[in-house]
Amino acid sequence: MKKEVTRTWIVEKTTRLSELMIQEGGSIAAPEGKFVYMTVDGVGRDILPGRYRGEIVLSVAETYHMTPHSLLRMTNRSKEFRNALVVDTSEGKVVDEKSVPAAIQGGTISGKEVDGAYIASSAESFNGILAIGSGSYTVKNTRIEMEGFGENDFVGMGSGIEAIDKVDLTIEDCDIQVNGVTRTSVHVGGDSHVLVKNTRIQNTSPDSDWLGDFSWACGFTGTNRLCQLTDNGSVRYENCHLKTNGWGILSIDGTLKHNDMVIKDSRLELSGPRAHGYGAFCIGGNHVRMEGCDVRVNGYPLLLRGMEDQGRAEIIDTRISGRRFGVMAMGDTHSVLTIEGSSFRTDKSTLVFKGSATEINVKNTEMVPGNGVIMQLMDNDEGGMNAQDFHVPLGETDVPDSSHDLTAVGNDDIRLNLTDCTLTGDFYNSTSNIRANKRSTMGGMGKFHDAVIGVMAPPTMAALPEGEEIPAEFTMEKVDLDVAKNLAVTLRSTSITGVISSAAQKYRDGLTLIDESNRLEMSNITQTAAPTVNNGVIVCLDAKSKWTVTGTSYITKLVLASGAAVTGPEGQRVWMSVDGVETNIAPGTYTGRIILRVS
């Protein structure tokens, strides 16, 4: 059967054709409350003017009404989803009226599992498999290939596989590739629990003018994140290969409680000439654990912004590498970061912390930074999602704050605990009270996304669905962490060769402004040891630890247990002065303006 469309054709029921011609001005629509989806030889296509030949199916089905979840709770927005397959796991059945059988090739499909199917589509915002209800479901030996624009990745529009409600979902031995702007491969929402095993998940973020308008200030580039965890869900990836050139691999956003994301024995890759983003993002009061993984990420293999004093991030027996940093924390409120039995090899600093109050516990780990800096504690240069720029504070100096105790570790300072490590590199604290990030030009955030929230006027509880609460990251009392901090470095059975010091920081020569066009200048500073102003440095060594000082270091407190060693490189000696008085280095506690020099 052939059909030529010159005006609007309302397709009342699923129709099969061998040839279809849609003239300019012609269109195809479904009856009210339904949608029409076109497949050509089994592959989904947007219905656009043109000539189509082959096995053409115009499927008429009902949309799935996706109630507000993820960040769309904040604006009380719902969405109409178009899906290849909708499964009600409570009933153990396929929801036929909301599914498109013509979009699924091969395999066996039931209310309990999909096995051996193939789903391919280039239609915008079309979903592969949507699992709803409160039962169990399995997707295995299935290949999903989708591309094109996704209207809203916060709720999973256009995702390959999505679980909501209270689904217990297993994805096993699958191959999922979803390419496009803001279109995720796997979306975990509601109260669902998802296990992904032995699966390859990949997307290619297309070159586009849209580079993440609201995320440029994090240094992100690209147009996509690979997988998403939201609401009250939890997810576990085992023996998976996760690859993208977008702005992120494993995202968490819009969570309500304390969610778990575990990545075990998996390979994470974020690379490409336009790629700069994160491997996993631990945000909110959530838990992210990498164990036994190989993480190769241009940007931030782990990005940390824990909140509510609940954030927990773990890197265990994992190999981290990348052409920028290792771990970056921004706006982190009292998370605990644990690194154990791992290795870091990065082109720049291993740890970059700004505007954060974090406890970092590192054990038996190798850190090899390309720029020689292991800890880069710096002033925050991010003004928030609504900022349009950052003005580099040229020629400004910090003013001493007499109320700031430089010898104490406060609740909002940084604690770095090193155990059973042998490290060569420098540890710098260049924080100040200059607060240049508070001078950013504000406004204009969200040129694209309809989930723009948080920086807008706060919503009222009345705008939310009954029983829902505003996500904690948008209601909690904001703690201003963009101030000078003390850095406490504690060594337990650890040897450090390098400088540990207060520092000055400097951006690239000639740089006065950072905006969307040169976003990779964010965090890209050079630090040099400098006398302490408000940026205290506290160093504690236990009886089995050694600090080989390689250059002048300015600290404010030194605690040496009996047996601890502070020495210079071979053939050189360390000299210490405290408040200008030359002092022997011996077990004990020293406070004041401490300078260690090598000669």
Mean pLDDT: 92
Alpha carbon gyration radius: 27 Å
Distance between the termini: 91 Å
> What percent of residues are in strands?
over 45%
Quaternary assembly? single chain
Helix amount:
under 10%
Overall shape: it is: elongated
**Major beta sheet summary:** 18 strands, mixed
Structural class: mainly beta
In DSSP terms (H or I, runs of 4 or more residues), the helix count works out at: 0
Low-confidence stretches: 451-465, 472-477
The overall strand count is 58
Give the secondary structure arrangement, pairings included.
Layout: E1 2-5, E2 8-10, E3 15-22, E4 27-29, E5 34-40, E6 43-45, E7 50-62, E8 64-66, E9 79-88, E10 93-94, E11 104-105, E12 108-109, E13 113-115, E14 118-121, E15 126-132, E16 136-140, E17 143-147, E18 161-163, E19 168-172, E20 175-179, E21 186-188, E22 193-197, E23 200-203, E24 225-231, E25 234-238, E26 241-244, E27 248-255, E28 260-264, E29 267-270, E30 277-284, E31 287-291, E32 294-297, E33 299-306, E34 312-316, E35 319-322, E36 327-330, E37 333-340, E38 343-346, E39 351-354, E40 357-363, E41 366-369, E42 373-378, E43 390-391, E44 414-419, E45 422-424, E46 426-429, E47 487-492, E48 495-498, E49 500-506, E50 513-514, E51 526-529, E52 537-541, E53 546-549, E54 553-560, E55 565-567, E56 574-578, E57 581-583, E58 588-598
Parallel strand pairs: 1-3, 2-4, 9-15, 13-16, 14-17, 15-18, 16-19, 17-20, 18-21, 19-22, 20-23, 21-24, 22-25, 23-26, 24-27, 25-28, 26-29, 27-30, 28-31, 29-32, 30-33, 31-34, 32-35, 33-36, 34-37, 35-38, 36-39, 37-40, 38-41, 39-42, 40-44, 42-46, 44-47, 45-48, 46-49, 47-52, 48-53, 52-54, 53-55
Antiparallel strand pairs: 3-7, 5-6, 5-7, 8-9, 9-10, 11-14, 12-13, 43-50, 49-51, 54-58, 56-57, 56-58
